[in-house]
Design goal:
It contains 14 helices and 27 strands. It is 29% helix and 27% strand. The protein folds into 3 domains: 131 residues, Rossmann fold, CATH 3.40.50; 222 residues, ANL, N-terminal domain (Rossmann fold, 3-Layer(aba) Sandwich); 97 residues, GMP Synthetase, Chain A, domain 3, CATH 3.30.300.30. Strand 20 and strand 21 form a beta hairpin. The protein is α/β, with parallel strands linked by helices.
């Protein structure tokens, strides 16, 4: 099987591979850069299987570092720029990387985290404005000066060799390094391309970080078909992102739930026209049906795909066809090509229609396990199957409805209540931008329902409004006992709300 880099750089053409800061980068130029950087890695002593850290915002530097590592037979280890110093150190130590690429703005953070590790050969996208680089650290300009001349083809790798280590988001604990193989990457890329019918005419606006597997999969799928990836400005400037979506003639837009929540409540998203937009897609968590309905109403001619995936499954596992959104509200649909999904009871037997079980996935996209953690690997990867930890039911048509993660159920008065159900109802309120629901200790109920909400600016929405709405829609046993408003909810790099942090804050405040 070929090196996965060959899948992403299929031809030496002048078609546009990337658009960065408004400037096009052709496949020919991208491949030339990747070949030179891969040669430099090899000259520096990299041997196939060695880990290479990458930490930067989305950029040409990031893409070149990522692809050249894989091209040279190394293992790319993307790290989130938002990772805490403690987690960053743990990830550097877990990977045992000796090489790295870092954006200048993250130079000091990586230098501090790697001070007493084996990481000693690092390339920086630009020389620092002040001070000197550590010994053996160089500016990226040195990467263009390979002594090898014309570079040989990508280093041959076997299908089950590790190509990338993606650290999980770590929303509830220590991030784990998921070992993703060349086979995994190629299989999942082909599955997604098939499900979305991507072609060389597709142009995706990329707002998600490429250090997150969902963001990386957008890069993978579009390069694999000879399409174009438009790297957007920071999503902090949502109006600028919308300008790029229209001006760049993008055919596809992808987001996690918070992406669409912010666009719907804090931008002019639904009042604009995007004449080239062929589809939109959402994954990375649950987007309330009420918000999906708003998007469909604003863009009735643009298909909207609800997708589901996990880092441990390379990227994505299922999709709900746009034409079935109304009939299957709240569903993640069925498996994408090349993937098998089942909902199983704890004894391993298939759950009956409507019976809650755990989603178990299989296919060539299922990762090899967790780096350096055989216990966690044994718990989640069993005989080639991934036990996802997501509890769900299947209907008569085979469509899957996720009820929540095991840890997200709240035990209220002896009854299990899914936080997702309550979040969906609260999201129906037009002044709610984001909401997170979880359980807090309660003297008589065992656990009580708490809701943390971000409202629209200048909104008059208060706790009584929220409780009253939930009471009417769900009954008193599912109404929140505590409601607190925030300017922002804490999120990880994937845009997922960090409920563990909210629970700690709630405990500290005496809720």
């Amino acid at each position: 099987m070929r090196n996965f880099a060959e899948v992403l750089l299929p031809s030496d053409t002048d078609a546009t591979a990337l658009v960065v800061c408004g400037r096009p980068v052709t496949y020919r130029d991208l491949r030339s850069k990747v070949e030179r950087w891969a040669a430099r890695l090899t000259e520096s002593g990299l041997i196939p299987g060695d880990c290479v850290l990458i930490i930067d915002d989305n950029s040409l530097f990031y893409v070149a570092a990522y692809l050249s590592t894989i091209y040279a037979g190394g293992v790319a280890v993307p790290l989130s720029p938002s990772t805490s110093a403690k987690s960053l150190l743990a990830q550097v130590e877990t990977s045992q990387a000796r090489w790295g690429f870092v954006g200048r703005k993250y130079l000091e953070r990586l230098r501090e985290a790697s001070a007493n590790t084996g990481l000693n050969r690092v390339w920086v996208d630009a020389a620092p404005e002040r001070g000197e680089l550590p010994t053996e650290w160089e500016s990226a300009a040195a990467l263009q000066a390979s002594d090898s001349g014309v570079w040989r083809p990508p280093v041959s790798r076997s299908p089950d060799d590790v190509a990338v280590i993606n650290f999980t988001s770590g929303s509830t604990g220590t991030p784990l390094g998921v070992m993703v193989s060349h086979r995994n990457l190629e299989a999942n890329t082909q599955s997604i391309v098939s499900r979305l019918a991507l072609t060389r005419d597709d142009r995706a606006l990329l707002v998600l970080p490429m250090s997150y597997c969902f963001g990386a999969s957008i890069l993978h799928t579009h390069l694999a078909v000879g399409g174009t990836v438009v790297i957007a400005s920071s999503f902090a400037y949502s109006e600028r992102v919308l300008d790029e979506l229209a001006a760049s003639a993008c055919t596809g837009f992808y987001g996690v739930p918070s992406t669409y929540q912010i666009l719907l409540r804090r931008s002019t998203f639904t009042t604009r026209q995007y004449p080239d937009l062929r589809y939109m897609a959402q994954a990375g968590g649950h987007l309330a049906p009420a918000l999906i309905n708003e998007i469909r109403a604003a863009f009735p001619a643009v298909p909207f795909y609800v997708m589901y995936g996990q880092t441990e499954a390379t990227a994505r596992l299922s999709a709900l066809a746009p034409e079935r959104l109304a009939a299957k509200a709240g569903s993640v649909g069925r498996s994408i090509p090349g993937v098998t999904l089942r909902v199983l009871r704890s004894d391993g037997q298939p759950a009956s229609v409507g019976e809650v079980g755990e989603i178990v996935a299989s296919g060539d996209n299922i990762a090899l396990g967790y780096l350096g953690d055989p216990a966690a690997t044994a718990a989640h990867f069993r005989d080639g199957h991934l036990w996802t930890g997501d509890l769900a039911v299947v209907d008569d048509d085979g469509d899957i409805f996720i009820r929540g993660r095991r840890r997200d159920f709240i035990k209220v008065g002896g009854q299990r209540v899914g936080s997702r159900e309550i979040e969906d109802v609260i999201a129906e309120l037009a002044d709610v931008v984001e909401v997170a629901v979880f359980g807090v200790p309660h003297d008589t109920l065992g656990e009580a329902i708490a809701a943390c909400i971000v409202g629209r600016p200048l909104s008059n929405l208060d706790a009584d409004d929220v409780i009253r709405h939930c009471r009417l829609r769900l009954g008193r046993d599912r109404e929140p006992k505590f409601v607190e408003f925030f300017k922002e909810l804490p999120k990880n790099e994937a845009g997922k709300v960090m409920k563990a942090a909210l629970k700690r804050a709630a405990a500290g405040s005496g809720i």
